[in-house]
Design a protein that fits this description.
Blueprint (H helix, E strand, L loop, with lengths): L1 H8 L4 E2 L2 E2 L3 E7 L4 H18 L3 E7 L2 E3 L4 E3 L4 H13 L7 H11 L1 H4 L6 H11 L5 H9 L1 H17 L6 E4 L5 H9 L1 H6 L7 H5 L1
Parallel strand pairs: 3-4
Antiparallel strand pairs: 1-2, 3-7, 5-6
């Protein structure tokens, strides 16, 4: 199950001269959680611009599985479920590069950052600007159908396996370390650099 979702959300990068050392980073987040959105905008997105080459990023929007009816529920209401569905449906193609995944995440969270609901028009705009080859009709069908529910249930199972107790929940190299998470929430680039055996120049200037 983890392999399935990782295939959806993660793209490995290999340079022409050989494999680049990577830090595996998994973010479990809620799409309308203020702390999750703050981390995405203040740390992950700008940090990725600096050190994305040295990262394998897995994005896991969290929604709770509702055992009573087989659906999902979201702590911050229906719009949170909508955004989560929109994200997994837009990014389910394994051919989408990691850079575009992070860019789409940032774009699709903009409405939350602006303290408003995210709408169909917002997601369409993000598709147009970030993922122009992805059809809105295809995404909308996924959002409204069982596919998005099943994708989010898979993510829920992964979050449970990781021992998630809150969001944002940060996992580096398949392990959750509270001290490292605290560091990353204040300086994501520094946290990544601390895990690289041969830190690049950006780590020295950060």
């Amino acid at each position: 199950m983890f392999k399935l979702v990782a295939t959806i959300f993660m793209c490995l990068y290999v340079s022409s001269s050989g494999a680049v050392e990577k830090v595996n980073f998994t973010l479990i987040y809620e799409t309308r959680c203020p702390y999750s959105v703050e981390f995405i905008f203040d740390q992950l997105y700008p940090g990725y611009q600096k050190i994305g080459e040295y990262l394998n990023v897995t994005l896991l929007p969290y929604a709770r599985e509702n055992e009573a009816d087989g659906g999902i529920t979201c702590q911050h209401g229906d719009n949170e479920c909508y955004i989560s569905r929109a994200q997994v449906c837009s990014l389910k193609d394994s051919a989408i590069t990691q850079e575009l995944q992070v860019e789409f995440l940032h774009c699709s969270e903009q409405g939350v950052y602006d303290s408003r609901n995210v709408t169909d028009a917002d997601i369409q705009q993000c598709l147009t600007s970030v993922l122009p080859n992805i059809s809105w009709d295809t995404v909308k069908t996924c959002i409204e159908g069982e596919e998005s529910t099943n994708l989010l249930k898979d993510i829920y199972d992964i979050a449970v396996a990781y021992g998630r107790t809150y969001v944002p929940y940060l996992i580096f190299n398949e392990q959750h370390d509270q001290d490292l998470e605290n560091k990353a929430r204040g300086d994501f680039v520094a946290a990544v650099c601390s895990l690289l055996t041969s830190p690049p120049a950006v780590c020295q200037s950060n």
